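batch_manifest entry 22 of 60
target: Peptidoglycan bridge formation glycyltransferase FemA/FemB family protein
source organism: Streptomyces boluensis
requested by: lab member K.T.
priority: normal
notes from requester: please return tokens only, no post-processing; we will run our own comparison against the previous entry in this batch. if the run fails, retry once and flag.
--- input ---
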Amino acid sequence: MSLTLRTISREQHLAYIQSLPSASHCQVPAWADVKNEWRSECLGWFDKSDELVGVGLVLYRQLPKIKRYLAYLPEGPVINWHAPNLEDWLNPMLAHLKQQGAFSVKMGPPVVIRRWEAPTIKKGIQDPDVKRLRDIEADVIEPRAFEVSDRLRKLGWQQGEDGGAGFGDVQPRYVFQVPLANRSLDDVQKSFNQLWRRNIKKADKAGVEVVQGGYDDLPAWQELYEVTAERDRFRPRPLSYFQRQWKALNAEDPNRMRLYIAKHEGEPLAAATMLTVGSHVWYSYGASVNHKREVRPSNAMQWRMLRDAYALGASVYDLRGISDTLDESDHLFGLIQFKVGTGGEAVEYIGEWDFPLNKVLHKALEIYMSKR
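--- output ---
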């Protein structure tokens, strides 16, 4: 298969994404407006009939003082990852990015390698010898994903070090998903654990109301989010980031980003943002206050978001990043513990991969990042 690669318009890029069942929200053209501190470019792969057969959103981050860039394709590019001629897709991309001044390329192939179902994870948590997801046998192993990894290594790509939760600009390798395709909402709720079902009933009985917010509700979201950041010891993004995200994503598609707020007696107790691309729906950011936890606003909110995702025709409700830890003493354990209650599955992707186009600058970046 003869492929050529060139810069394409945002309109071409979006039309291609819209022709697919789904793609990562990090690969829609509007994501470039969200990440406006990076320079961006839309790439298109064309077959010999000059038909568009793949796209990629590239974000370029400039090195201080010199015109050389890290080129990053988060959860992309959107190509046929199982094609036998993977080098015919990736080599033209590397040549193009080098021409654009890139010294290193980072990408996140959207290729799943393993899946663990909720009962398997629960057994692992109860076993004192099990510390990580990898310590228990996966319910589903995707052999073709190993082929992709092998091919990438042979082509000179290096696997990124981050195999954990991967928050921030580095995308998570492990996520938690609730499959919705070919299931009724009753089936979905029946797969929740007893605690989740009880907490949803508790919230309902206490009068927790979950509403959809708009742009003007983002300051209220920010207040809850900053409380969460202080409690969970992470640096929060500013309100301007979420305002920019809302404007950029919803200008591209009015249903791309939603805000949900769980209230009790009129007081906002929890909030979350939700992103949709095709049949894939993501719970993106979540926040909650430190009081009134007994009325279970977060469970009520997730159940409402899940129902709305189902109504949108989603095939998967994605609760995003988890760590691979099953060790109860690890501070990230609570993430998987909360999400496993939905009866979904932990999903491992093949992770992020780097290609150093200039080994000296790539090494310098690695040293800089390790010190941050």
